[in-house]
DNA sequence: GTCTATAAAGCGATAGAC
DNA sequence: GTCTATCGCTTTATAGAC
C-alpha cells in the first residue's frame, strides 16, 4: 500500500494504467478507487466529469509523454541524417520499453478499435497523426521513398505487434517486430 | 425489420457483428436482443451459458470462416509456387473485404488487447496461430527467408492497419497497407 | 479535500406463463 | 420455442457529514 496521490497530475498515470489493464468500460469506479487509493469523493473532486474526464486527462498525458520522448526527436533538421537516424532508433527503444514488449497495450490503439473511438475520436486521431507526421519527417530526411506511407507502415507494424504479442502471449513477437523494422531501415 | 432468425447457427453471425460494433462488455443483452430480434428467453434457450457462450460460438464461427476462405488456400503443396502465390493473393482480397478496409474490426484482435483475452485466450491464440502457420507454409513455398517471422509481420501489418484506419477514420490507410504488403511480395 | 451513504439506472441471468 | 416479469447485483453519480 504505497501512496495515496494527493494531486490531480499524480493520479493521472495511475488511472492510465488502470484503463490499460481493464479497458474504459471495464475500469469501474471501484477499480479506479482501489488503484489510486482515493475515495469516490476525491476522484470526483479532481474529475467532476467522472470517467470521461479521467480518460480525457489520461489521453492528454499520454500524448504529452510521446511528444517529449518520441515525436520531438523525430522532428529533425531537414539536412541532418545522423539526427534522423538517432531519432528513429530512439523511437524503437522508447516504444519497446513503453509498451513493455507488448505486455502493455496502447490506449489510443485500444480505443480506436472499440466504441470509445466515438467519444475520444479527436484525441485518438491526434495521437496517431502526430506520430505519423513526426516519423514522416525523419524518414524523409533519410531519403526514404513515400515516407508518409512508410511511416504509417512502421506504426501499424508496432500496433499489430502489440496485438499479436498479446494474442500469442509471447513478448518475443513484439521484440521481433521491432527488430525487423530496425533492420528494414539499416538501423 | 427483416428477419428474426430461428436457428442457433443463423443467430451467430448477427451476434458477431454486435460484438464487433459494441465490444464484449458493451454488447448488453438488450443490444443483442435488438440485433437478433429475439427475446431474452430465446437467446438463453440457444445459449444457456449467456454472453460467454455466445462469444465462444462467435469466435468458433469466425475461425471456421477463416479456415475455409483464408487458411486452407494458404496450405499449399510444397512444390506449387503458383498455388502459393494465389493463396496469398486471395488472402489479401478476402481480408480486405472481410474487414471492410478497416471499418470492421477483428474480434480476436480486439479481444487480444482487452481483458477478454483472459477468458478467451485459447480461441484468440488459436486464431492467430493457425493464420501464422498457414501463411508460413505459403511463404516457405515462395522461398521467402525466415517465413514464419515474415508471416507474423504481414499479419501484424493487417492488424495494425485496422487500428490506424479506424483511428484516422480513413479506410484508404488500410487499403494502402494491403497494397504495400502485396508489392513487397511482388504480387 | 476526503469520506460514507445512497440514489437511480442498467446489467446478466432466471422463472414461469403460454 | 418464445415471451414478460423480476430477482439480485453492479454501475455511475450525487449528497451531505466531517
Task: Output the keywords.
homodimer, mainly alpha, elongated, DNA-binding
Walk me through what this model shows.
2 copies of one chain form a homodimer. In chain A, helix 4 (51-74) runs antiparallel to helix 5. Helix content of chain A is 74%, strand content 0%. Chain A is an all-alpha fold and 187 residues long. The longest helix of chain A is centred in the middle third of the chain and has 24 residues, at 51-74. Chain A is built from 10 helices and no strands. The mean pLDDT of chain A is 96. Chain A is elongated and about 55 Å long. Chain A has a domain at 59-184. Chains A and B meet through helix 6, helix 8, helix 9 and helix 10 of A and helix 6, helix 8, helix 9 and helix 10 of B. The first copy, chain A, binds a DNA duplex (18 and 18 nucleotides) through helix 3.
| Helix segment tally of chain A | 10
Overall form of chain A? elongated
The structure class of chain A reads mainly alpha
Low-confidence stretches of chain A: none
Q: Tell me about the biggest sheet of chain A?
A: none
Briefly summarize what is shown.
2 copies of one chain form a homodimer. The first copy, chain A, is mainly α.
Secondary-structure map:
The structure is a homodimer of 187-residue chains.
Chain A: H1 8-22, H2 29-36, H3 40-46, H4 51-74, H5 81-98, H6 107-112, H7 116-119, H8 121-141, H9 147-167, H10 171-184
Chain A binds a DNA duplex (18 and 18 nucleotides) through helix 3.
Amino acid at each position: 500500500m504505497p501512496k495515496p496521490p494527493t494531486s490531480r497530475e499524480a493520479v493521472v498515470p495511475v488511472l492510465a494504467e488502470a484503463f490499460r489493464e481493464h479497458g474504459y468500460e471495464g475500469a469501474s469506479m471501484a477499480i479506479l478507487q482501489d488503484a489510486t487509493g482515493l475515495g469516490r469523493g476525491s476522484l470526483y473532486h479532481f474529475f467532476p466529469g467522472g470517467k470521461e474526464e479521467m480518460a480525457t486527462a489520461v489521453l492528454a498525458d499520454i500524448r504529452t509523454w510521446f511528444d517529449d520522448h518520441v515525436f520531438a526527436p523525430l522532428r529533425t533538421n531537414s539536412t541532418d541524417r545522423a539526427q534522423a537516424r538517432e531519432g528513429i532508433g530512439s523511437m524503437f527503444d522508447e516504444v519497446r520499453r513503453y509498451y513493455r514488449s507488448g505486455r502493455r497495450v496502447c490506449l489510443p490503439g485500444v480505443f480506436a478499435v472499440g466504441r470509445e473511438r466515438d467519444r475520444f475520436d479527436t484525441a485518438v486521431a491526434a495521437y496517431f497523426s502526430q506520430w505519423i507526421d513526426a516519423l514522416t519527417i525523419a524518414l524523409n530526411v533519410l531519403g526514404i521513398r513515400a515516407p508518409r506511407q512508410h511511416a504509417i507502415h512502421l506504426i501499424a507494424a508496432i500496433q499489430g505487434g502489440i496485438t499479436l504479442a498479446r494474442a500469442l502471449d509471447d513478448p518475443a513477437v513484439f521484440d521481433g517486430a521491432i527488430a525487423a523494422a530496425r533492420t528494414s531501415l539499416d538501423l
